[in-house]
Amino acid sequence: MALARCAMGLGDEQTAVDSLFLLRREFPGDPEVLYLATHYFSQLGERMSQELETKAPASFQARKLQAESLESQEKYDEADVIYRKILEENPHTPGIHYRLGQILLARAGSSGSTAGAKVEFQKEIEIDPLNAAAEFVLGELARRNSQWNEAISHFTRASKLDVGFSEAYLALGMSLTSSGKFAESIAPLERYTKMQPEDPAGHYQLALAYSRTGNSEASSKQIALQREMAGKQQTDTVEGHAAPR
To answer: What are phi and psi for residue 37, nearest 5 degrees?
Structure first.
């Protein structure tokens, strides 16, 4: 830890990063290590951002970073202008249509039209067919409109493109259940509950799938787990809001 602090003070980024990763490996879960890593990686990120703006201010990477910052501040109009300018100069830049789709979703809110956003995510996949996030959002848009076959197709691709994308397995299982394909929904839901065992929603959905396929014993076990995890979440929330003595 002293080595990491000294390296950061001297600007020796390689030594600082090596020290932080060594700490993470040797002391996983240690709160002081996690705090130090969060603090210093944030500093390193800020330094890289400043270096990018200084050395290549006209690059699309620098402008994309600027637009992402504006987007995080909900300055959507300003971010939109920068993203579209990048596309004017290079229509095949990956990630830009995805960001435009997110802006359109944010502008639409919970009740607005998502047609424009859907077009942007489809364009993103044309440029980057390996973009699991874009596939997932398209699946969510289809699921909201009860377009189950389309949702299933997108969620399936998202889960195959990124095998660690746990939310894609849950969404796929839920879409299969909603379309009446209960037997097919079991595999992705089992995968999700293994990846996220503390999420009550996964156990509930899996219990429903088991129940609809006649496996009452497995369904009962999942209901018990769902109640246990829901109770644990409630306890954690109460403890987290408890006033210190």
So the answer is: -65, -45
